[in-house]
Amino acid sequence: MFWRPLVAASLLAFLVPLSAQVAPGTVEAPSPAPERRSIVLVTVEAWRPDWLGSGGWSRPTSPRFDALAKEGVTFERVVTPMPAAAAAHVSLFTGAPPRVHGADTLAASKGWTSREGTRTAAELLAGELYRCAAVLSHDGVGKASGVPVGFPVVDEPQQGVRDADTVVARAIKWLEVQRDERVFLWVHLKGGLEPNVPSAVQLERFPLAPVLEERLALLGVPADRFNQGGFQKTTLVRLFFPELDAPTIHKQFQVPRIDSGRFLELFRRYEADLASADAALGKLADALAATPAGRRAVLVVAGAYGQALGESSELGHGEMTRENLLVPALVRGEGLAARKVAATVSLGDLLASAAHAAGAKAAAKLFAQGAQDVLRDPVDGALASRPEREHEKNPPGPVHVLYTSRWRYVHRPTRTDQLFDLAADPREQTNVIAAHPEEAAALLAETRARLGL
């Protein structure tokens, strides 16, 4: 299958790793270093745990992810450091929080560069003679953003968005060229990011059903709320009317009326896009399973951020809601026992932990830059931050959210803080900060410590 020699279509010149030379052992000789294995990272944008089978959703949006979850280490609560593509990915690659690595805006990054203290996994693994490549669905995390620093091969579209099947097919083709070399491959999928325009075949798998009406009722706001202003026209069109040409929308453009039917169609299209990404993930997993080297590889699959679909009158991503901050994630690899991790962890910890499981020396550097080993001894708690937004009336200022297994603490330096008891209030609707002053004080202290204050 892959990692076999191909004809002279070899993509680029790579350094060939040296084979380990082990002298004949004696009683006094040290044990040989553990084998360093390949690492395959799959990130999916706008991916929510509660819309996946492993998260309790009843429709077939994620059968391949669910199967992988049963084989690997699944994390029950993963928090993205910032609900934005570039910031989240840079944290994943460096192990550092946004305030440290500097890609700390909600907008697309432009020319982020690493430095001492924020070296990326690709840079470090390339130094260990891993062959590194990134295959991307869109250029928002491409070369111009600076996110793929350290990847000598960055395969991105010149414009537009590539579907999941195309991305994975190109990734498998690159793997085939590498033969049995150690690789670090990053596969980036659009996932549920709007506009959701799935194929007709995928959409037919998700007909209108009572479960969607139940989801609509859980929003807690009527569909008419989204006709009353306060939302960008381009966001409304991309989510509810993807058949329209959003880039040509002008100031006088009138968005068509949004009703419950439009919400149900949005849910269906979102489901179908998740299923498309999941099916492509399955093809990649099958390719890995086809060779001994692939079966030994450490596979990381994670959401970059979530997607609001009307909850709390929010749409899309960029806000500090549970729908935007919580993402699914798993790590599967030889020697990793299948289990669930209940501790709340950060997305920024996953790749460093996987690198350690793969035997890569780069893991030590990533841990030194801020990541923790969540496969061995995770510390419960993860912080997400959003910077102050410019060009808004009454901007809310920066917002920091600390999640633990029990609490969600919201620290707003320019406004009032909030506390939510996740055990009693999993939908995070009731602020109980007045009833728990000691817990609030401890969580504020931890938040400030994580912010370096």
List keywords for this structure.
453 residues; alpha/beta; Alkaline Phosphatase, subunit A; Arylsulfatase, C-terminal domain; nine-stranded mixed sheet; four-stranded antiparallel sheet; 14 helices
Give your account of this protein's structure.
The structure is a single chain. A hairpin with a 5-residue loop joins strand 7 (308-309) and strand 8 (315-316). The model is unreliable at 1-33 (pLDDT under 50). The termini are far apart. It is built from 14 helices and 15 strands. Strands 1, 2, 3, 4, 5, 6, 9, 10 and 11 form a 9-stranded mixed sheet that branches. It has helices spanning 63-71, 85-94, 98-101, 121-126, 164-177, 200-204, 210-218, 233-240, 260-289, 292-296, 322-325, 350-357, 362-368, 437-450; strands spanning 39-44, 73-79, 131-135, 153-155, 183-189, 298-303, 308-309, 315-316, 326-327, 329-332, 339-346, 382-386, 399-403, 407-411, 418-421. By secondary structure, the protein is an alpha/beta fold. The chain has 3 domains: 39-196 and 268-376, Alkaline Phosphatase, subunit A (3-Layer(aba) Sandwich), CATH 3.40.720; 209-264, no CATH class; 388-453, Arylsulfatase, C-terminal domain (2-Layer Sandwich). 29% of the residues lie in helices and 16% in strands.
